[in-house]
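Risk register update: the risk that structure generation would not scale has been downgraded. Supporting records follow, first protein first.
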Amino acid sequence: HAALLQGLDALGLLDSSADSESRRNILVSPLWQPEDGTQRIAAALAQALAAPDAPALPGKFGFAVDCGAQAVLRADSADIRIERGPGGVTVRAEGYATGACVSAEEAVPAAMALAHWFLAQGGKTRMAALTPQPALPQGFQTTLDFSPAAAPPPPGLTPAGWLVGAEFGQLQADTLAALATLGALRLTPWRMLLVEGLQHAPEIPGLVTEALDARLRVVACTGAPGCLQAAAATRPLARALAPSVPAGQLLHVSGCSKGCAHPRAALTLVATPAGFNLIHHGTAASAPDLLALSLETIASHLLPTFHAP
């Protein structure tokens, strides 16, 4: 552990204090290009959040820096968003249709002003939790003409390199080490890594490298025995059922009713001591439509659901 800390410190990846680390919640578009200003704005924002006069923001309060030609982070959680705008960038609070149109150099001061305003309104958790929704300060009341947001790209080639998916969002250490030999790695919020400059799919076992990979159509938590809350193994079942899930549909296999891997509604299987409950459209906590299915009969119950009109 000491050697790890020493190495991280040499790379400039350790914060000066736990407080500054807790404030540095910055989500950066993985598709950034050198000329779009994303990295420069993100670095200036990190510096501002580490300053002595930085706002004492809640632990989950975060910023998104998404300055590419198309915004790709709008479906991902953030409280203050910095995006490309006419003649510069826009800075806005999550949930508001208006914001500030500023130059790239003014983006971070504007974001800090918005963060201080959030606290002045009594904000305790997230921007969306401000109710009733207060009027934004002067300067943030320009109606924004949002450019169409791009959906997160699937695994495959991008202008910045090759996006590779991690099966169930988890990588083995040796897989990560092998990827790192192919190029600089960028983290994404989409259970994928981007290998900078790579022009072909890496030949490393266990990775999801193509958009049509059936494993992209299943979601599963750790399951038993890795999670003590889980009533059964989940990932072997999800892996086996993936080829049966049609394109455009999603199957969620949960080890218990908490549904940690996918909190939104989907076709869901939930492990119980008696077998798997089937929920046609709901979360893992929803009322089941079928109870205690055995591993041998699950597929026969799922197939009609997949092909229902």
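Supporting record for the second protein:
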Amino acid sequence: MTAESRLVARPGLGLARTALAPIVLGVVVVLLWQWAVTALAIKPFILPGPFAIGEQFTTNIGNVLQGMAVTGWNSLVGLVVGSVIGIVAAIIAALIRVLDEIAAPIVAALAVVPIVALAPVLYTMFGAGAETARQIVAGLAVFVPVYFNTLRGLRQVRPVHRDLMRSYAASRWQATRTVTLPTALPFVFTGLRIASSLAVISALVAEYFGGPVGGLGRAITSSASSSNYGLAWAYVLGSIILGLLFYCAAIGLEKLVTRRPGG
């Protein structure tokens, strides 16, 4: 029996190997990092050691989790709202060609709007005590990849399938719902996987430029300004974990939706 056939016969073995490889690599990287910091006497303000970061993380786990909750909520709101608007806008653009041509340069312009310039303006508009600005920034970052990937997927339907729907006298919406959307689904989830990480990054960056006291971005800034670099990196670790949670959730949702009946 070949190695491939053994993995097919024992799917748990393949899953274990898939999960084990990044874990082993991560442990090796952490050990090398700690060795380099100790052997080269790297100052904490340049790069703290992973053991020091881990100690700060466990000691301040409550504050880290609180920051993750604030940033995570803003990211989630931006992800959901931006994704829904992006998918709906892509469907409309695919159905009405002239709207697609009008919207393309506008969406392209949104893609290059710098958060550094946008966040302070939104704080002025909605108030420094509201989380709205951070959610809008995350939503805009999500909208662009979801819109473009969904629109690309909606254009992948083969002409023969469109002709078949016309032969059944199906309306445009019926053809979109039964043929176009299922074909576009993999592209939609590609956009969602990209957007899941962008939502966290955008909400985190927006926290640097004002708003309520809370969230990982403000915590990183405050810790670094007080020269507590280990704690600052502990909050960075929290943001990495949050981003991974969002990304894994997007992958899990994709597998749930695209799972074949009876598979």
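Residues 220 and 232 are 5 Å apart (CA to CA). On this basis the risk owner (M.S.) recommends closing the item.
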